[in-house]
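Try this one yourself first.
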């Protein structure tokens, strides 16, 4: 009985052992599977992180390249800016020097214009009305200088030209065609078909001259002879012609400045002037074709 019990107990114990062994085997496989799954998940996460890190690294390198390119461009722009600044500074300095030279040149122009205007004013005071014009002297220095030069050239041309022509003038408020003798800005006239002669006074650039009849017969004859001599029909001769229609007689002394009033006037033969403000008569040596002698 005892043996039977022992045998039964052994069998039960063996059965218990046999029944208990499969359970641990099943638990180990599941754990291994779980470990494998976890390892796979970890590897997949690590791969994703690696890919993300690599992509971020590429973006960072690309951004770094862009920044370096911009830095290089900015450095080049800065160098160009420094060069442009130096060039501009040099141009400013050059412009300043040029401006100073122009200012100095303008001062020279102004001084020369004033000197020419003063000389023309002196010449005008000693000449008959209309013989010399004086510019206003206003405006920019170069413009004032150009105006002074033009006035000087006009005075020189006026002083060196003489001619006899048929021209119209205003006589007693009417236009009359007369024979006109022009010398150095002065003028004398004689009727084409009449005995009257006189002084022609310029009235403007486009206006006909004003004709005044001389009251002295000797003056009228001298004017006609001067015109004939200038035309070449008389030999050269020294004439005393009036500068105003109301001039004194030929036998009376001159009371005003002498002026060349016909071609060939000799300045050293002119009488002295007592009054620059009231020109009356002046001698002139008249030759054929308006030659000045």
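Now uncover the answer:
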């Amino acid at each position: 009985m005892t043996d039977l019990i022992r045998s039964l107990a052994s069998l039960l114990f063996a059965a218990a052992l046999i029944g208990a062994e499969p359970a641990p085997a099943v638990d180990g496989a599941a754990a291994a599977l779980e470990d494998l799954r976890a390892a796979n998940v970890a590897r997949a996460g690590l791969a994703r992180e690696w890919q993300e890190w690599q992509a971020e690294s590429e973006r960072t390198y690309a951004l770094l390249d862009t920044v370096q390119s911009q830095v290089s461009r900015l450095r080049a722009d800065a160098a160009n800016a420094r060069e442009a600044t130096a060039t501009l500074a040099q141009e400013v300095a050059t412009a300043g020097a040029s401006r100073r030279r122009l200012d100095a040149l303008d001062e020279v122009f102004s001084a020369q214009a004033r000197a020419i205007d003063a000389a023309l004013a002196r010449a005008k005071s000693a000449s008959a009305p209309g013989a010399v014009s004086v510019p206003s002297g206003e405006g920019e220095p170069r413009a004032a200088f150009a105006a002074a030069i033009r006035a000087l050239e006009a005075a020189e041309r006026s002083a060196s030209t003489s001619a006899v022509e048929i021209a119209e003038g205003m006589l007693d408020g009417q236009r009359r065609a007369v024979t006109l003798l022009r010398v150095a800005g002065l003028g004398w006239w004689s009727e084409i078909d009449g005995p009257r002669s006189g002084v022609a006074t310029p009235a403007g650039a486009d206006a006909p001259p004003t004709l005044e009849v001389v009251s002295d017969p000797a003056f009228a004859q001298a004017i006609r002879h001067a015109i004939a001599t200038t035309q070449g029909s008389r030999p050269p001769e020294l004439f005393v012609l009036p500068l105003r229609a109301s001039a004194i007689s030929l036998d009376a002394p001159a009371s005003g400045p002498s002026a060349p009033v016909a071609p060939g006037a000799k300045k050293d033969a002119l009488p002295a002037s007592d009054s620059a403000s009231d020109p009356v008569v002046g001698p002139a040596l008249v030759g054929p074709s308006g030659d000045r002698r």
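Discussion: The beta strands are 162-171, 174-183, 186-191, 197-201, 210-213, 237-242, 281-286. The first helix runs from residue 2 to 20.
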